[in-house]
Write a structure and sequence with these properties.
About 40% of the residues lie in helices and about 15% in strands. By secondary structure, it is α/β, with parallel strands linked by helices. It has a single domain, classed as P-loop containing nucleotide triphosphate hydrolases (Rossmann fold, 3-Layer(aba) Sandwich). The protein has a seven-stranded mixed β-sheet with strand order 3-4-2-5-6-1-7, with helices on both faces. A hairpin with a 5-residue loop joins β3 and β4. α3 packs across α4 and α8 packs across α9.
């Protein structure tokens, strides 16, 4: 019998009691039922792949015949994600095996599947009725792929989560975070809020990376491209018809 009455659809309890994973406060938001459309903007080394792998396993285990797609920038990252998910599946007492059609995949006794795909548009077409779509390192996935995979959610009215560390002021992850509207549940986790990253390590990383890279990699900031003449946020504001001239002068 797939899906425990005890766990139900409580992803947090499922992670704790069945997967042996104790989520922190922000990870509990990701695992909770509150977001059909989620944006996770997190520091490096926070554990986004681990918590979203738990989310993928929970969906596949609890919802028979469901399809979970995980899209990553490259095949290696898709494989790493599936390895994390496979580790959780084994804790459920389920033998891990592929679906026979996709290189990076897990199939469950209830007919559910988790399939990992790289950022290659030709490889993602053909899937439909997706229950949960996860885009890992979304700031580094192409806009064309994002547009190609969104229709897969239409038939099943599936859930969508974008997870990434920022990578400049460009791309769909940046656009959805800054201009995507109220339909998204936004979760931001800078390194200073991660209980697993020591403060001394953050100081060391800041000294090594420099201010700009540290703000991006550990501060969750969408930092403008190095060498750019204009900051994109300033350009956007300058294009707004109701912008007051005095505001622009103060910024300069």
């Amino acid at each position: 019998m797939i899906g425990d009455v005890m766990c139900g659809f409580d992803g947090v309890r499922f992670a704790r009691e069945r997967l042996g994973f104790e989520p922190d406060a922000k990870q509990r938001i990701v695992l909770g039922p509150g977001g059909r459309r989620g944006l996770l903007n997190c520091s490096r080394q926070w554990g986004k792949s681990t918590v979203t792998a738990a989310k993928a396993v929970h969906r596949a285990y609890s919802c028979p015949e469901s399809l979970v797609l995980v899209v990553c920038p490259c095949r290696r990252q898709s494989g790493e994600f599936l390895r994390k998910a496979a580790g959780f599946v084994r804790k459920l007492g389920i033998e891990t095996r592929g679906d026979g059609d996709n290189e990076c995949s897990l199939v469950f006794p209830n007919g559910s599947r988790i399939v990992g795909l790289p950022d290659v548009e030709a490889n993602v077409r053909g899937f439909s009725a997706v229950s949960l779509l996860l885009i890992d390192e979304a700031a580094r996935v192409s806009d064309d792929l994002y547009k190609a995979i969104l229709p897969m959610l239409a038939v099943g009215d599936g859930d969508l989560w974008l997870m990434s560390t920022p990578c400049g002021q460009r791309g769909f992850f940046y656009e959805e975070w800054t201009n995507g509207g109220d339909g998204w549940l936004r979760v931001s986790v800078p390194g200073a809020e991660c209980p697993r990253i020591p403060a001394a390590l953050l100081e060391q990383q800041k000294a090594t990376l420099g201010d700009r890279w540290f703000r991006q990699e550990f501060g969750c900031e969408f930092v403008g491209e190095e060498g750019s003449l204009f900051d994109m946020d300033l350009v956007r504001r300058a294009m707004m018809p109701d912008l007051q001239a005095i505001e622009l002068e103060e910024r300069w």
